């Protein structure tokens, strides 16, 4: 085994590879704990969305409000500090499109709770909550005050 492979085996706690084992089988990466680092969303007007995101993002678990000139930024807290974050910045010529950001939650009750928060925060074009996407997929669809599409969903085991 090469020095590099020995280092990788040590880092990933892999057992030594017998010489007859193909090299590829020795590289087994651990499960990923995060799927993204941040969302950088553009809006036409920060003033129009500020209250909406100040209400919605903490309810979604982005509880750490980071004050940066020209941005709204909320971070999720993890054992080592901040993990994922959601940033919103102004781009006066931004035009909302058909892209959608969907947030997964633990159960349908959380979808219902967050749907009420979306209404209180000033969400627009709210659809649901319900099973509109098929059996086992419970969600609420909505737009922020600038028309960016968002969703909060719960997917039961076996749902697509």
Task: Describe this protein's structure.
A hairpin with a 6-residue loop joins strand 6 and strand 7. Helix 2 packs antiparallel against helix 3 (108-121). The chain has a four-stranded mixed sheet, with helices on one face. The protein contains three helices and eight strands, in the order H-E-H-E-E-E-E-H-E-E-E. The protein starts with a helix and ends in a 5-residue tail after the last strand. The protein has one domain (38-155): 2,3-Dihydroxybiphenyl 1,2-Dioxygenase, domain 1 (Roll). It has 160 residues and is α/β, with parallel strands linked by helices.
Number of strands: 8
Q: What's the architecture, going by CATH?
A: Roll
Helix content: 10-25%
SSE run: HEHEEEEHEEE
Shape from CA axes? globular
Rg (CA only): 21 Å
Annotation field: number of helices: 3
* Helix-strand makeup class: alpha/beta
Q: In the CATH hierarchy, what is the class?
A: Alpha Beta
Mean pLDDT over all positions:
83
- Through-space gap between termini: 42 Å
Going by CATH, what is the homologous superfamily?
2,3-Dihydroxybiphenyl 1,2-Dioxygenase, domain 1
């Amino acid at each position: 085994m090469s020095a590099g492979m020995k280092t990788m085996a040590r880092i990933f706690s892999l057992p030594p590879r017998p010489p007859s084992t193909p090299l590829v089988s020795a590289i087994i990466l651990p499960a990923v704990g995060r799927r993204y680092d941040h969302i950088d969303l553009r809006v036409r007007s920060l003033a129009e969305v500020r209250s909406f995101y100040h209400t919605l993002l903490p309810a979604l678990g982005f509880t750490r409000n980071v004050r940066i000139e020209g941005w709204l930024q909320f971070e999720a807290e993890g054992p080592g500090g901040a993990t994922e974050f959601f940033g919103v910045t102004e781009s006066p010529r931004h035009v909302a499109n058909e892209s959608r950001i969907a947030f997964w939650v633990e159960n349908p009750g959380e979808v219902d709770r967050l749907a009420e928060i979306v209404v209180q925060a000033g969400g627009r074009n709210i659809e649901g909550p319900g099973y509109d996407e098929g059996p086992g997929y419970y969600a609420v669809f909505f737009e922020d005050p600038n028309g960016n599409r968002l969703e909060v969903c719960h997917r039961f085991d076996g749902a697509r």
